[in-house]
Structures are given as structure tokens and as C-alpha cells.
Amino acid sequence: MASHDQDVTLLTFWPSPFSIRAKLALLFKGIDHEDLPQDMDNKSNILLESNPVHKKVPVLIHNGKPIAESVIIVHYIDEVWPGKSPLLPQDAFLRAQHRFWTDFIEKKIFDSLVRFMRSNDGGAAVNEEFIQNCLLLEGALAELGDEEEGPFFGGGSMSFLDVMLAPYAVLIPGVEQVMGLKPASREQCPRLHKLFGAVAEHPSAKVALPPIDKLKEYIQARYGSK
Ligand SMILES: N[C@@H](CCC(=O)N[C@@H](CS)C(=O)NCC(=O)O)C(=O)O
């Protein structure tokens, strides 16, 4: 682990895909930190004071200064601890591509997944929308990620977009197994399947991602089956 002169605390909620991103970025960079799990039904003073605008996790507190919003947190981590392998590419156009597809994950992938989970009509239409969004992401992966170098958007090493997507490696199977989501097939999205497989095997992701059975119990309790 790096830099013992830094005081780094992360406010988290274990099933939160947003918390998982921030945790993964810290682990990937080897940053010593304290993980402070939060009770979402009884928000702590530290959460309310450090994220008074949204009152949500994750919040990174670095030497007493709070940073909220997972995308902003991962960006901050990458700037403060560039280390041997920066998450964002050096090239400005590629950086813009990573930001564009991050925005797509928030606005399209996450949104269609949550609408599926909340749907009370079986969710077939929104499930199809979700698959179409995965196909678009597959196209981006084929364009941006060098398959010969490795399975990630960053080729052989995780990059910004890989961290953004990593929580879905467990979230999608969780929603599939509890709620009957039909994910894009291996034939439709071979690169995404490889990426999620590689995420599941990544040493930092193994620590950051919750076990699938625990996540399934949470999804079942919170959303029920379809
Ligand atoms: N856009 C935020 C979303 C964070 C978020 O929605 N966090 C949820 C947990 S998954 C939360 O703290 N919810 C508490 C609440 O809504 O009161 C991010 O990227 O960090």
C-alpha cells in the first residue's frame, strides 16, 4: 500500500455500485484507506456533513476534505495518485471518449437496469432497451479497447471505464438470477462478457465487489422477484 502520510476515508454502502467504483479505484492504486460502511436508513453525521447536497455514498474524505459523486471521486483518485498506471488515457480525445461512455453508463445502462428492476409489467420492453444499450457499449469496447493487449477498455490493464463498469460484473448476474433479467448474450456482446470475466478475476475487484449470493439476497429483499 502507498503513502502512509495521507488520511483517506471512504464512506460506503456495500451493495452500492457507486461505492464499489470508488473502493476499486483505491484498491487498484494501492491507497491505504479506512472503509466506513454507512447505514442508509439512519444516515450518520459524517455522511450528512460531508455530502450535505446529496446525502449519498460514496464520499471520499482526503485529509479532512470531502469529495462526493463516484465519477468525480475516481477522477480525483487518478489525479492525486497517478501511480504507475493512470486510469484515464494520456490522449485528450481518448479521455473524452472515456468521459462520454461513462456518461452513457450512468444515463443508459444504469437507468435501464433500474427501470427493469422497478417495472411491474414484467419488464420485457425495458429489458430489450438494456440489451440495445449493452450492444452500443460493446461497439465502444471494440473501438477503444485493444483486444490483442487484453480484455479491458484499457487493454491489459484496468482503465477509467473499466472501473466505471466493474460493479456491473456482479450487478447484472444478480438481477438476472433474482429478477429474470435477460442480459445480452455472449454471442451478442463477446467483448463485454470477456471484460466482466476479467473483472471477476482481478485481485482488486475480488475485494471491492460483493459476493454474488450476498448481493442476490439484498436484491431479493429490496426489489423481490418478478
Ligand atoms: N451519482 C451518485 C449516486 C450515488 C448514489 O445513488 N448512492 C446511493 C447508494 S447506491 C445512496 O447513497 N442513496 C442514499 C439515498 O438516496 O438516500 C454517484 O455516482 O456517487
TrEMBL record:
<dbReference type="Pfam" id="PF02798">
    <property type="entry name" value="GST_N"/>
</dbReference>
<dbReference type="InterPro" id="IPR036249">
    <property type="entry name" value="Thioredoxin-like_sf"/>
</dbReference>
<dbReference type="InterPro" id="IPR036282">
    <property type="entry name" value="Glutathione-S-Trfase_C_sf"/>
</dbReference>
<dbReference type="InterPro" id="IPR045073">
    <property type="entry name" value="Omega/Tau-like"/>
</dbReference>
<dbReference type="InterPro" id="IPR040079">
    <property type="entry name" value="Glutathione_S-Trfase"/>
</dbReference>
<feature type="domain" description="GST N-terminal">
    <location>
        <begin position="6"/>
        <end position="85"/>
    </location>
</feature>
<dbReference type="InterPro" id="IPR010987">
    <property type="entry name" value="Glutathione-S-Trfase_C-like"/>
</dbReference>
<protein>
    <recommendedName>
        <fullName>glutathione transferase</fullName>
        <ecNumber>2.5.1.18</ecNumber>
    </recommendedName>
</protein>
<dbReference type="GO" id="GO:0004364">
    <property type="term" value="F:glutathione transferase activity"/>
</dbReference>
<feature type="domain" description="GST C-terminal">
    <location>
        <begin position="91"/>
        <end position="225"/>
    </location>
</feature>
<keyword id="KW-0808">Transferase</keyword>
<dbReference type="InterPro" id="IPR045074">
    <property type="entry name" value="GST_C_Tau"/>
</dbReference>
<dbReference type="InterPro" id="IPR004045">
    <property type="entry name" value="Glutathione_S-Trfase_N"/>
</dbReference>
<dbReference type="GO" id="GO:0006749">
    <property type="term" value="P:glutathione metabolic process"/>
</dbReference>
<dbReference type="GO" id="GO:0005737">
    <property type="term" value="C:cytoplasm"/>
</dbReference>
